[in-house]
Amino acid sequence: MFTVRGPVDGSQLGFTLMHEHVIFRDTEFSKDYPDLSWQPDRPSALARAVTGLQAAADAGVRTIVDCTAFFHGRDMDFVREVNERVDMHIVVATGIYTFDYLPNMIMRRSLRGPGDRDILTEMFVRDITRGIGDSGIRAQIIKVATDLEGVTPNNERILRAAARAHRETGAPITTHTQPLERNGLDQQRLFRAEGVDLRRVVIGHSGDTTDLDYLMELMDAGSVTGHDRFGLYLPGWAGLPERVDTIFRLCERGYADRIVLSHDSILHNDRNDLASPRMAPMPDWRMTHVPLDVVPLLRERGVSEVDLEAMTVSTPRRILEAGPAY
User: Measured between alpha carbons, how far is 34 from 320 in angstroms, rounded to an integer?
Assistant: First the structure.
């Protein structure tokens, strides 16, 4: 298994947060206007990221999966520097973060390479087998997204490209969804059509809903559900008590081995003004919320230690230990 610091054995992963972000940084903006990108400068951004990641390590987190894909604002140099200062495993992603839009370069070069492979599949496979850019850091998971726009033709193309890269490399798939639209089922339908083993797919952001029937349908098909936005309690989404209760009820029904936990937090984000008042209402949106607050609440609610271990250690390991290509 590959991490920012190189290969590791799955037994070393420990307590794992399955959906986080070290950095969102618009590469074109930062190239032309670096002084406006870092808020206020790169050393300050690096220090904040190190502080946030170290707090997670101090809380017992041993591994994070950085789901920052192409178009998200990847910066492998920054991620490497953060990891050099914090003793933690960071698994990084390939994939693409867009709900519909694709640039002309991709739209006009849809087929490329041996067997007329989609350029998107080529990108994903290259990140997994060679490394992202010239960083030498190999991706271990494929990230894609379906949002309110639904499965548009472009979105379908992305999902199919991810499925084909998954089957070619064995790297698992993790997704962004809008669970209130139940579109994790649409993703599963396309993955299934491409021959994907749904047990190797995490349907992300599933914890935003309390719809047990929807969640069980996803898991009955084999997928893992990502309850991965703890701390991001927005209007219309489940709050902390509802999320804890939903997980407890799913564990009662025997689904603990198909649940993973996380926050979808971001250590540095050039899209947000750090001084903005809209950041203030989310004090729990941090990488320590799950280990320090959520896990104790689940334990108090009645979730067993065996189930807690499944959600935080054994299921993440099973997902990340990429199976063979098929």
Answer: 35
Query: Of all helices (H) and strands (E), which one includes residue 42?
Result: helix 42-58
Distance (Å) of CA 266 to CA 11, 141, 271, 325:
26, 18, 11, 31
Domain chopping of the chain, boundaries: 2-317
Residue found by looking up tokens 């307590």 in the block: 15
CA dist 212 and 198 (Å) reads 19
- pTM confidence score: 0.96
**Token duo for residue 4:** 């920012």
pLDDT of amino acid 284: 95
Q: Do the beta carbons of residue 121 and residue 164 sit within 8 Å?
A: yes
Q: What is the mean pLDDT of residues 181-199?
A: 98
DSSP state of 310: I
Owner of token pair 């003793």: 87
Strand pairing class (6-7; 16-24) = unpaired
In angstroms, rounded to a whole number, what is the distance separating the alpha carbons of residues 34 and 28? 9
What SS3 state is found at 16?
strand
Homologous superfamily assigned to 2-317: Metal-dependent hydrolases (3.20.20.140)
